[in-house]
Specification:
Shape of chain B: elongated
Number of strands of chain B: 0
Low-confidence stretches of chain B: 1-16
Strand content of chain C: 15-25%
Mean pLDDT of chain C: 83
Number of helices of chain B: 11
Order of helices and strands of chain B: HHHHHHHHHHH
Largest sheet of chain C: 8 strands, mixed
Mean pLDDT of chain B: 84
Helix content of chain C: 25-40%
CATH class of the largest domain in chain C: Alpha Beta
Number of helices of chain C: 23
CATH superfamily of chain B: MetI-like
Chains: A alpha+beta (558), B mainly alpha (296), C alpha/beta (611), D mainly alpha (341)
Number of strands of chain C: 23
Strand content of chain B: under 5%
Distance between the termini of chain B: 29 Å
Structural class of chain B: mainly alpha
Largest sheet of chain B: none
Distance between the termini of chain C: 22 Å
Number of domains of chain B: 1
CATH architecture of chain B: Orthogonal Bundle
CATH topology of the largest domain in chain C: Rossmann fold
Largest interface: A-D, 66 and 57 residues
Oligomer: heterotetramer
Number of domains of chain C: 3
Low-confidence stretches of chain C: 601-611
Radius of gyration of chain C: 26 Å
């Protein structure tokens, strides 16, 4: 059986090669993805979709970004999160007194539309963000969390003036821009690296504006983006494929790969098959099992990095009986971590002992749960439910919810957890729901009682941002506190840390917060799994970034 | 003789008796599994084992495993059909699934049969603007794409057997309305109806006591086919993610979770439940046909 | 007709079997018969006796899975049972052809009849399609279809039953066969049409010099058209006699039985009830119109209907299909709500009662339906069927109901054991008795019978009519007997009313109407009626009072006399002046101003005499 | 005839209107609202309100319905203006999106139907000509078996065998290999467009990708078609007019033609129902073979709570079904002169 399996894909690929045109020349690659961008406007309706973000980061350019760091054991180039370098901004200065940043912009940067980058583009980008004219105001949001003056909730009021750019961002000359903060906030530069504040090409954008749509949302959502990135959109069929061609004028040099085609192949197994057939050069979003079966296959390579992806169990403090700390702890000891790593991730994961990604600045190891059913039973008895007696009353609460679209990845994991928890007496059932519904219940209704989540990746690379995002009370600035966790210690310490200009002090406070979160088991961290992608062996220059989108610019064919 | 010579009055009545026997056997077997299936498998169909993606034993291994399982010398009971990517024993799930599939199919069938028969009776017996409206509504229902309605329902109220039954009933009720109505239209002009009227029987009593029982035959025959198709639809719904919740043992769900692996050569989690569906639905189709030949 | 001529067809010991449960059932079991050239032979037998099977087998046709198990059919020197299917095919249509009952089902519904006739013709000749079409027109003309150029383009469903049957005769005779097998060719047709059609068939066959095997249950048709009669019983030909001999001196028990009623009655008419008897039913006015779907028009099913029935009196209501007689029956028992009516039952106007108030009359007025199979709920036991009216209408205990059910079973001559049976498998005669028993169970005073004998085989029909006669005498019930069968009316009823297009055109005692019909329509009806009397064969006495054409549409009624378009005596007055029902001096009523003025019974052959 | 068609179309439009209104309200009962998907990680109440306004969900329900139906063209064009609205996921007009997805499904289902029909007619007839014979038994069992198969499972099985084991089929990746550029659409039907544009390489490729899915669908749909043809043919052969045709010596061929024609007329209704059912059931095969058909679009729309897209899909599928029912009724009337409108 095994032997046959090894040989037949080869046969298949031979047959395919005969049937279909040979895939790619040295200058072109085909990437298989779950989806292609639905829009290239980060304030548009599709900004929350990773596929759309991938399109944005490859065609648009930030002011600043992380420099290259080390190369990991898979040969993947990692960023150095400890510092930030200039991209469209050449350099900058910060005046602590006036909380003002002065950016010196790079000259001679030419975008896909032929325009040259200058201060007007920066002003346009922020003005557009402040107009909150799009469906989902991400630009405003990032500016807001990094405390840029004027980017507050008043933009949503009726006063049109509040939506216009004031003196917080001013053009000093064509290549100098000043941005003012309302308070000290260490998130400022990290936020500028994120996809939601990439720079627009004003000239091209305005050329496609209409009276009904002065900020060119429709065009950016339907036709192309306009910026100064490494690639330009040359063909785009939504739900099908998008083709990028290299921006030969890219300021970091002409990309090695001249044409990148991203094809939508919704089923992961199909992506795997085509990659194995040699037609495509890169596939992402496969299941751990598929990566595992591809590892070591001739001509293919799987690259991975323990980046910022993790899986955790979500227990809602507002839902009985998860308000019982002993029960939370019992569950923590009833999860078979090693089995999940082995059978769910095929070894491509490590137990997670923290509450923010371990690669982020400010991370601290704070937990050390083990799989110990006896201890779990003892804790369950302490919690008042010996052998699980009395938990049947909470049948609905114990529906372990997960995203149905991720069945092939999460299925084995939830099944393992379900079996293990039932083994100690917790009456778990499974409840796969569509992603949209999951998102609604997690973000808006916040009524998910018991869930498994593997999709939370703080977009700003900072432990403190992760904390503010997930653990701070909503009324204290918490943004996505899905488990309704509320701790005065966390809230107060973060309030101080957020505006603390001294990074050392800030780090100490952030560590203290993590300790507190861990002791409350706000989340039950399970594993950090490797972000993986499979590719042709000849496709080199693999790199990883916090947004988990590949940068085509880094790639080249050997 | 030429082939037309003996075709004229060809109703081959009870000619497929052996086929009828096969149908009855399959249906009886599935019904039996629905009763005891979840308890007789070597593993709990809803609990994982630590062994994932184990292929089924090869033919040469089977005798040894059989001997081993009878003499209790094995480490663990054999996985006759392998295990899936979560570590479930495929065999235990395949034989436990009829409980789910058949329950849904029977419930959907009888809910729609009950509603469809009564509405069909009313629509056929009392023809007025109200029943005309009823028929138009039923037309609209019938043109409603089943998978979309099921998915919307599931999104409305979550994945549960009840919702699947409801979605299927929505599909089948118009069929039963039509069937019953057509029959009622024929039967309501029958002599015994007029006779009952001539002796002063109230209309509603005529409708329910005379017309309905005599109009049920086509619908009852259709039932067998419907039950089979309900199993197909249930599994199809699982396949698009609108079916029962895991880890409920259900054939379509097993196929669907195995579908991702089939392309990597891991065929067993999908193939075995597929065979089970194939045989079961065939059994119901055969039985339905036999009934049709007998009573029409 | 000479008996010395060599037989055209000679069948010997023919056996046809159908496999059932491991052996063969044999509807035809050793039948032997001969047919000579230009001879018209009648084949009579009960429904299901195998008449049709035998007729088909004579052409080498057996409905699968049946087979010819033995015997021979010699035709033109060849044994048809030995021929291959292809050789047989050439025989059929060219040498032996057939027409069957239900002509509209036997014609291809999807193809124009001209093309069908042409196909039939071209199957046996090398004719081109154009020649085929010409032949079709010629044949349609020959069978008496008006406007054949237009009719060749008609589809079967566009033709009336009689017209379709003519088209089929045209098809069957297109290739000039020497023998025509006519299997119940007129069943389901109205008497006037039936007579026209049989006349035409007889004439056409005479012209083409073919022989006919006329398969029929209708003694009248046999008596009037056949030279010789064969009786089929138990799969064998039990009697083979010239027609007069058959009717006068039947030899076999079976033949005697089917001729029994015919012999028992003789010339007597039923006795009139006493004039002193009260009118149990007085219909002063009855009009019934049905709306036409998707149109403002109405069907005038019944207009200006008046009739009185005395207690204990049996009145026959006769007319062709479409005359409205069934509608009248249904209005009287309020199965239909009349458009306008004054119907007094025992003095109460029941014509306008709502259904609830009508209930208290239900036990006194009952109805017996035409189709015995259809009028009992097949899922109920006979007992449940019988006591249903008691449940609805009487306040009785279970035991009382059971006792009453047993009484009526006895009354209609059925064994009480049948009470536990379900209707499935019971014969039409038994079921019709059950229907009558159910109608009688509440002891009604008035009974409407809607063609109760029309689906029964001759023997069962005779028995049922005798039963009805007996019940009427013993129980003194008033009957309205709706039928198109004049023979039965003559036997059973004291008075008769003739309907045409929703009106009564003549009404009087049976004796008056049958011996001296005044209205031209009654005359034509009686004239067309095939009384089983071989001494006064229609083919020997061409008649002049036949009606032309077919019944006008009840949607668009004529202004004057409704019969004017078909009546041989009609003139301008008839066409313009509506006719009223007038009472003549002898109590007879008639709706014809000419008849009224003449006051003399029209002359008529004594058609009712027996042989 | 014309009156009948216009009446049918009129009733159909009313039904579609009722359907639209029903769907409109039903999807608004969904427990999750689509706004969350838009606001993503930023769930501040202000942003939520902003997104809600963007989708027009802040308006009263009846106003939304009015906008959808097209009574407020100043706000946005609606049904009356032949617009199905704009997808909330992609921002594209729903009509345009359906225009690209629907032809894929129609093409697949139609091909499968034609293929199944061409095969089924002779097979069904072969069974009917010799009832109870060996061939008939085979045909009959086949029809019952094929009609009760899970087509998506057969799709998987065929992929496993033909692609994985034997390598004789292309990867199940839609109609074209990812690197082939599709011809500029004219009709939206790829096969037709390929011919019109003279792109026979594309035609060949699309056909080779369609082989397995078409086989799967035809296999499943051939069951009921064969069963129906066989049954109708038998019924026709048993009918009085065939017996009568034989009794007047019509040739075998003529009898066969009479019977076939009589068998076809009543088959049309069932074909229509089957086609409609396939249309909404094709989603399974589409997802097995990654064909971007209307079923995939429907699933995506439901999963994303894309209200305009859900409404559009339901409306369009129902409309297509109604049109097909009408067409087949007209064909039936053309075959059978007894049916007059």
């Amino acid at each position: 059986m095994k032997r046959k399996n090894m040989s037949s894909p080869f046969l298949a690929s031979v047959a395919l090669a005969a049937l279909l045109p040979v895939a790619a020349s040295a200058q072109e690659i085909l990437i298989l993805a779950e989806d292609v961008p639905s829009g290239l406007d980060y304030d548009g309706p599709s900004a929350a979709v990773p596929a759309s973000q991938q399109g944005m980061v490859n065609t648009m350019e930030p002011l600043v970004f992380y420099p290259k760091g080390e190369v990991n054991e898979d040969g993947v180039q990692l960023p150095d999160f400890s510092t930030i370098e200039g991209r469209l901004a050449e350099s900058w200065t910060y005046d602590e007194e006036t909380l003002t940043w002065t950016f010196k912009l790079r000259e001679g940067v030419v975008g896909c539309g032929g325009a040259t980058f200058n201060a007007d583009d920066v002003l346009y980008t922020f003005a557009r963000a402040k107009s909150v004219s799009g469906a989902a105001p991400i630009g405003w949001f990032l500016s807001n969390v990094s405390s840029i003056a004027g980017f507050d909730a008043s933009v949503f009021g009726d006063d049109p003036a509040a939506k216009e750019l004031g003196d917080e961002i001013v053009k000093i000359d064509d290549y100098t821009v000043q941005i003012k903060q309302s308070e000290p906030n260490a998130l400022f530069l990290p936020a500028l690296t994120a996809f939601g504040l990439l720079m627009f090409d004003k000239e091209t954008m305005e050329a496609h504006a209409t009276d009904a749509d002065p900020w060119t949302h429709d065009w950016a959502n339907a036709t192309s983006s306009a910026s100064f990135g490494a690639y330009c959109v040359s063909e785009w069929a939504k739900n099908e494929k998008i083709v990028y061609t290299a921006n030969e004028d890219y300021f970091l040099g002409a990309p090695a790969i001249k044409k990148v085609t991203v094809q939508r192949v919704p089923q992961s197994s199909n992506r795997a098959v085509v990659l194995m057939s040699g037609q495509a050069q890169l596939a992402s979003g496969l299941t751990p099992r598929e990566y595992d079966s591809m590892r070591g296959r001739a001509g293919l390579a799987v690259s991975g990095v323990t980046g910022n992806e993790s899986t955790f169990v979500h227990m809602n403090f507002d839902v009985e009986p998860f308000d019982n700390p002993k029960l939370r702890e019992a569950i923590a000891y009833a999860v078979p971590y090693d089995q999940i790593i082995a059978n769910g991730y095929f070894g491509q994961a490590e137990q997670w002992n923290g509450v923010v990604p371990s690669s982020y600045p400010g991370y601290k190891d704070v937990t050390s749960f083990t799989y110990d059913p006896e201890k779990a039973k003892a804790l369950l008895a302490e919690a008042g439910y010996p052998e699980g007696a009395g938990l049947e009353a909470f049948g609905d609460a114990f529906q372990l919810t997960y995203v149905a679209e991720k069945e092939s990845t999460l299925g084995p994991i939830v099944n393992i957890i379900q079996t293990a928890l039932r083994g100690v007496g917790v009456p778990v059932t499974l409840n796969p729901i569509p992603l949209s519904q999951y998102g609604d219940r997690q973000l808006v209704k916040r009524d998910l009682g018991f869930a498994i989540n593997d999709q939370e990746k703080p977009v700003v690379v900072d432990a403190g941002y992760g904390i503010q995002l997930f653990f701070v009370s909503p009324d204290k600035g918490g943004l996505n506190n899905m488990v309704n966790y509320s701790s005065d210690i966390v809230d107060e310490t973060w309030a101080a840390a957020r505006v603390e200009p001294d990074m050392e002090k800030r780090d100490a406070m952030v560590a203290e917060i993590q300790e507190q979160i861990a002791s409350d088991i706000a989340w039950l961290p399970v594993v950090e799994y490797r972000t993986q992608w499979a590719h042709s062996e000849r496709l080199k220059g693999q790199s990883w970034y916090a947004d988990n989108a590949p940068r085509y610019f880094d790639l080249y064919i050997e | 003789m030429n082939e037309f010579a003996d075709t004229t009055f060809a109703a081959p009545k009870r000619r497929f008796n052996w086929l009828f026997a096969i149908g009855v056997t399959i249906v009886a077997g599935v019904t039996l599994l629905a009763l005891i299936g979840p308890y007789i498998g070597p593993y709990d169909p809803t609990l994982t084992t630590p062994r994932v993606s184990v292929p089924p034993p090869s033919l040469s291994e089977i005798p040894g495993l059989l001997f081993g399982s009878f003499s209790n010398t094995l480490e663990h009971p054999p996985h006759w059909m392998g295990t899936d990517s979560s570590g479930y024993d495929v065999f235990s799930r395949v034989i436990a699934a009829p409980r789910t599939d058949l329950t849904i199919a029977l419930a959907a069938n009888f809910v729609s049969l009950g509603i469809g028969a009564v509405l069909g009776l009313l629509a056929g017996y009392f023809r007025n603007w109200g029943t005309e409206l009823l028929m138009r509504v039923s037309d609209v229902l019938q043109s409603f794409p089943v998978f979309i309605s099921a998915m919307v329902l599931v999104a409305l109220a979550g994945r549960s057997m009840g919702n699947i039954v409801l979605a299927l009933a929505l599909v089948y009720t118009p069929i039963y309305i039509r069937l019953t109505r057509a029959e009622v239209l024929q039967k309501k002009v029958a002599g015994y109806v007029e006779a009952a009227r001539a002796m002063g029987t109230p209309e509603i009593a005529i409708a329910f006591r005379h017309v309905l029982p005599n109009s049920m035959t086509p619908a009852l025959i259709q039932s067998s086919v419907t039950i089979g198709f309900a199993i197909l639809l249930t599994s199809g719904l699982s396949f698009v993610g609108a079916g029962v919740r895991p880890p409920t043992p259900e054939w379509g769900l097993s196929i669907s979770t195995g579908a991702n692996q089939i392309i990597l050569g891991e065929w067993w989690p999908s193939v075995f439940p597929g065979i089970a569906i194939s045989i079961t639905v065939f059994g119901f189709a055969v039985l339905g046909n036999a009934l049709e030949e007998r009573y029409e | 007709m000479s008996n010395l001529e060599k037989p055209l067809l000679d069948a010997r010991d023919l056996i046809v079997g159908y496999p059932s449960g491991g052996h063969y059932s044999r509807p035809v079991n050793g039948a032997s018969l001969t047919i000579r050239p230009r001879e018209v032979v009648g084949l009579i037998g009960d429904a299901g006796s195998g008449k049709s099977t035998l007729a088909l087998a004579l052409m080498g046709l057996v409905q699968a899975p049946g087979r010819i198990l033995g015997g021979s059919v010699e035709f033109g020197g060849q044994d048809l049972t030995k021929l291959s299917e292809d050789e047989l095919r050439a025989f059929r249509g060219r040498d032996i052809s057939a027409i069957v009952q239900n002509p509209r089902g036997a014609l291809n519904p999807l193809i124009r009849i001209g093309e069908q006739i042409s196909n039939a013709y071209r199957a046996h000749t090398r004719a081109t399609p154009a020649e085929g079409r010409a032949k079709a027109i010629e044949m349609l003309t020959m069978v008496g279809i008006n406007d054949p150029e237009r009719r060749v383009n008609a589809y079967a469903h566009e033709l009336s039953g009689g017209m379709a049957q003519r088209a089929m005769i045209a098809m069957a005779l297109a290739a000039k066969p020497r023998l025509l097998i006519a299997d119940e060719p007129t069943s389901g047709l109205d008497v006037t049409i039936q007579a026209q059609l049989l006349d035409q068939m007889w004439q056409t066959v005479q012209d083409t010099e073919s022989a006919i095997l006329l398969v029929s249950q209708d003694l009248g048709a046999i008596a009037n058209y056949c030279d010789r009669v064969l009786a089929l019983h138990d799969g064998k030909i039990v009697e083979d006699a010239p027609v007069r001999q058959f009717f006068a001196m039947p030899q076999h028990d079976y033949s005697k039985e089917i001729l029994g009623l015919h012999h028992a009655q003789g010339d007597r008419f039923p006795e009139q009830v006493s004039d002193a008897a009260n009118d149990i039913l007085e219909v002063e006015k009855l009009r019934m119109e049905f709306p036409v779907r998707n149109s403002d028009n109405v069907v005038h099913a019944v207009g200006d209907f008046r009739l009185n029935i005395k207690a204990g009196e049996a009145v026959g209501l006769v007319g062709e299909s479409g005359s409205g007689k069934t509608t009248v029956g249904r209005c009287l028992v309020r199965l239909l709500d009349p458009t306008e009516s004054i119907i007094r039952f025992d003095g109460f106007d029941i014509g306008s009662l709502d259904q609830r108030s009508m209930r208290k009359f239900r036990s006194r007025i009952q109805f017996v339906f035409q189709d015995p199979f259809d009028s009992v709920n097949p899922r109920w036991s006979v007992s449940d069927i019988l006591i249903e009216p008691l449940r609805q209408l009487a306040d009785m205990s279970r035991a009382e109901r059971r006792k009453r059910a047993e009484e009526v079973m006895e009354l209609v001559g059925l064994p009480v054991e049948l009470l536990e049976r379900k209707p499935r498998g019971l014969g039409a005669g038994i079921l019709q008795r059950i229907n009558i028993a159910r109608a009688l169970i509440c002891e009604p005073e008035f009974l409407v019978l809607d063609e109760p004998t029309s689906v029964l085989a001759p023997r069962a029909r005779n028995a049922l009519i005798e039963l009805l006669g007996k019940l009427q005498k013993e129980l003194g019930i008033a009957l309205l007997f709706i039928t198109h069968d004049l023979t039965t009316v003559r036997y059973l009823c004291q008075r008769v009313a003739v309907m045409y297009l929703g009106q009564i055109v003549e009404e009087g005692s049976v004796e008056q109407v049958f011996t001296a019909p005044r209205h031209p329509y009654s005359q034509a009806l009686l004239e067309a009626h095939l009384f089983p009397d071989p001494d006064h064969r229609r083919v020997d006495h061409p008649s002049d009072s036949a009606l032309d054409g077919e019944i006008p549409s009840p949607i668009d009624l004529p202004t004057g006399c409704y019969l004017a378009s078909r009546c041989p005596h009609a003139d301008e007055t008839c066409r313009s002046i509506p006719q009223n029902l007038s009472v003549l001096s002898d109590g007879q009523t008639v709706r014809c101003w000419k008849a009224e003025h003449e006051e003399e019974p029209a002359e008529m052959a004594p058609a009712t005499k027996t042989g | 005839m014309l009156k009948y068609v216009s009446r049918r179309v009129g009733v159909g439009l009313l039904q579609l209107l009722a359907l639209t209104i029903a769907v409109f309200f039903i999807i608004r009962l969904l427990p999750a609202d689509p706004v969350a998907r838009l606001v993503g990680m930023n769930a501040s109440p202000e942003a939520y309100a902003q997104a809600e306004q963007q989708l027009g969900l802040h308006r009263p329900l009846l106003t939304q319905l009015g906008v959808y139906l097209g009574f407020d063209p100043e706000i946005a064009p609606g049904l009356i203006q032949a617009s199905l609205g704009v997808s909330w996921v992609t921002g594209e007009p729903v009509l345009k999106e359906i225009g690209t997805f629907l032809p894929v499904t129609l093409q697949l289902v139609t091909l499968a139907f034609v293929f199944a029909f061409v095969l089924s007619v002779p097979i069904g007839m072969a069974g009917a000509l010799n009832p109870g014979g060996g061939a008939d038994k085979g045909v009959f069992v086949y029809s019952l078996f094929a009609g009760s198969q899970p087509e998506f499972w057969w799709g998987l099985l065929l992929i496993y065998l033909c692609f994985f084991q034997w390598g004789i089929a292309p990867a199940p990746l839609g109609l074209l290999s990812p690197l082939t550029s599709a011809p500029e659409p004219i009709t939206g039907f790829l096969l037709v467009d390929a011919v019109l544009r003279g792109r026979f390489d594309v035609l060949h490729e699309a056909l080779s990708h369609l082989v397995l899915p078409v086989i799967c669908l035809s296999f499943v749909v051939s069951g009921p078609i064969i069963k129906m043809i066989r049954q109708n043919m038998m019924r026709a052969l048993q009918s009085d007019f065939i017996l009568y045709g034989r009794s007047i010596g019509l040739p075998k061929k003529r009898i066969g033609r009479y019977a076939l024609r009589a068998a076809m007329a009543p088959s049309m209704t069932i074909i229509g129902i089957l086609y409609g059912f396939m249309l909404s059931g094709a989603v399974l095969i589409e997802s097995v073979f990654s064909l971007n058909g209307i079923g995939q679009y429907a699933i995506r729309s439901v999963l994303n709570f894309d209200y305009p897209a859900i409404q559009g899909v339901v409306l369009v599928i129902a409309a297509v079904s109604l049109v097909i029912y009408l067409l087949l009724d007209l064909i039936q009337a053309a075959i059978d002169p007894r049916i007059v409108y």
